[in-house]
Design goal:
- Chain A: Its EC number is 1.15.1.1.
- Chain A: InterPro entries: Mn/Fe_SOD, Mn/Fe_SOD_BS, Mn/Fe_SOD_C, Mn/Fe_SOD_N, Mn/Fe_SOD_N_sf, SOD_C_sf.
- Chain A: It is found in: Plastid, Chloroplast.
- Chain A: Keywords: Chloroplast, Iron, Metal-binding, Oxidoreductase, Plastid.
- The complex is a heterodimer of chains A (about 300) and B (about 230).
- Chain A is about 45% helix and about 10% strand.
- Chain A is mainly alpha-helical.
- The N and C termini of chain A lie far apart (about 60 Å).
- Chain B is mainly alpha-helical and about 230 residues long.
- Chain B folds into two domains: about 100 residues, Fe,Mn superoxide dismutase (SOD) domain (Helix Hairpins, Orthogonal Bundle), CATH 1.10.287; about 120 residues, minor pseudopilin epsh fold, CATH 3.55.40.20.
- Chain B is globular.
- The chains are: A mainly alpha (about 300), B mainly alpha (about 230).
- The interface between A and B is medium-sized, with 19 and 20 residues.
Chain lengths: ~300, ~230
Amino acid sequence: MSGTATSLSTPCSILLRQPLGFSRSSSLWTTKHERYGRRRANDFPAVTARLELKPPPYPLNALEPHMSQETLSYHWGKHHRGYVENLNKQIMGTDLDGMSLEDIIILTYNKGVILPPFNNAAQVWNHELFWDSMKPGGGGKPTSHLLELIQRDFGSFETFLNEFKTAASSQFGSGWAWLAYKANRLDVGNAVNPRPADDDKKLVVVKSPNAVNPLVWGYLPLLVIDVWEHAYFLDYENGRSDFITIFMEKLVSWDAVSIRLEMAKAQTAKRERQDLKRRELEERNADDDPVVEMYLDSDSDVSEAE
Amino acid sequence: MALRTLLSRRTLAATVRPELGSFLGLRNLVTFSLPDLLYDYGALEPAISGEIMQLHHQKHHQAYVTNYNKALEQLELAVSKGDVSSVVKLQSALKFNGGGHVNHSIFWKNLAPAREGGGEPPKGSLGWAIDTEFGSLETLISKMSTQGATLQGSGWVWLGVDKDLKKLVVETTANQDPLVTKGATLVPLIGIDVWEHAYYLQYKNVRPDYLNNIWKVINWKYATEVYEKECPVH
């Protein structure tokens, strides 16, 4: 238990001061520091916190006829399980063992130079959100605050629908299409956004290849559709666009998206409070520091213009 | 097949405005059509089911051809208007759909029913080159199967020859990127499709089983012909 944040390597210490994901398994967040400290202390035998295969929040036949039991039994029972088992094998006994899934994703994304456990870790996270994004008797239109935000940020629900469907159908190869909450966040560990504005807190539609998810860009995902062929091939064969239409009309769980929106907003508010605290602290410290002047080389990019 | 290609090229080409093309000094648009297979859909069973072959050829490959032709038409228009940003924007669709057409056209020739020589090891200079480069055919097969199995998402695993260095290479490409994206001098000998649509109906999530079985219908004779063309024996 003797490990402290100061003994961590740089990317981890940045990460610990700046939580990026928002996990439903919040216990992983709260115990993360101790867990990680224990791992680094090396005085103890490895304590392995194996990541679990979470089942969908409904029986495997509950989405029939839009998503067959056969599809779900392979998709959850084989693909999702495979990602969990392979991830556990990859991280066992490493520094990643015992960290939250979100932390593993961000660390192994490694600013785009992907490390081996990334694909499995992100695929576990993506599939958990995908199961939660659907429900029996889903579809229809979102309500209240979520609908207002969709209308504010896309113009209308129909425009959003088109954008989302286009993102999902135009993702070349395997990947995902997302509705995400884009809070303002600088990609610098200890920085404070100098100009936070309400406009930054927007809903956006994005797509991503293979296992990549918007957590790595600092966005908070609310809804996802899996457009790997294994998600729809048994039911729709090559008809990806049919699958996307049915997903939006019959499967999407707007209740779940609404709940995640509230979680995302709460997470953002928490980040802002932390930013504010940090800024106050920095301002206090700045009074003690000598003034450092910086010179910018304004001629440096002239050659580009020729 | 040649006649069909010719006919459809003419028909489709006639739909573009030739007067605009000739006014601007552009060639008439050449469009592409789905090549026929040299064997029946069911002829590769049990390694690859007839259902997979039919869908793969008639739906997937057809979609790449259709969308490549569409992108070409849009490209022609954008070029004729001098609309550079549209030309640039079209590159991803051209690469994806054009690559899909190129890759699948090779893939069909890479396969042959077992009774027509599918799976028979390469003879002659390619066989020697494989032994020299990889130790044995089994080592090469195992290397390609492993790389195909671990490829994340959709893509292809290739045996190619570098036509300048006269050297065999194993490469993987993502999505529908053709082998040439890994080097301008690379010529594909064998390309194996590891998109899920290539095996899912039969092998489900077990891509390694598909990769294990596909060697039983690989057409090494075709690969040898391409190799000998690029690396003639003196």
